[in-house]
Amino acid sequence: MSRDDSKKGNKASGRQGGNFRKKSYARGNAPIKKNTSSKQFSDPDSIRLNKYVSNSGVCSRRDADIYIAAGSVTVNGKPITEMGYKVKLTDEVKFDGQLLNPVKKEYVLLNKPKDFTTSIRDEKGKRHVSGLISSASKSKLLPVDKLDKEDVGLLLFTNDGDLTKRLKSPINGLRKIFHLVLDKDLRSADLKKIQEGVLVDEKIVKVQDISYITDAPKREVGIEIYSSRGKIVQRLFEQLDYKIIKLDRVVYGGLTKKDLPRGHWRYLTEQEIINLKMIK
Prior knowledge:
This is S4 domain-containing protein. Keywords: Isomerase, RNA-binding. The protein is α+β, with helices and mostly antiparallel strands. α4 crosses α5. The longest helix has 9 residues.
């Protein structure tokens, strides 16, 4: 891993100029990409049936028309085949007997800055990451996992409970890459210990890769790990008597910080969502 790569996000941020630095993170920044997926129903009382089915995540709106015409969709127990049929949000809509939820699932990636908490609790005087993505959706989006207040890097938000549950405890762990700054140089002997596996809470922690950052002091390292254990990276280094001064999560489950300056957010692409849903 190179030092230049690890600082790409900060360089991108710097190109925004003085105006970017003056913006308040508490109000949330503009998205990197515009996407109409965050729009809610224009009519609060009714919605076209094909959009209702599409929003539930069953299929695209075009495919929904096909299923509706085939009689696969029922409203309040009755098959509906009429194109353009509108339903109320209080109606019971089923697809092949399965009850649907019309709230569109949304996915937002934030490059978290320092000094923002991810705790669900309302801590007085604390700046919360939810404020940074407040303009992304009218739905309540929650972070899939946590980063400490001092930590920076990638944080995924969604209202997709199934995906959140899957990412929190995948069978083979979730791929994450961190750029770390330690309180002292990492001894080569300890680097080798980490490569071979370190015992933390009676379980061996194995990393996919660990290396010194190119052209940087030996207290800066990059580490790739597949794990869903809470604060496992911090606990790993504590076991070897090191303290992490800075933690930057640069890769999360295949998502990267590319073109995403610190403090900014973007919507996931359709392909990125598909890739995450393939994680078991």
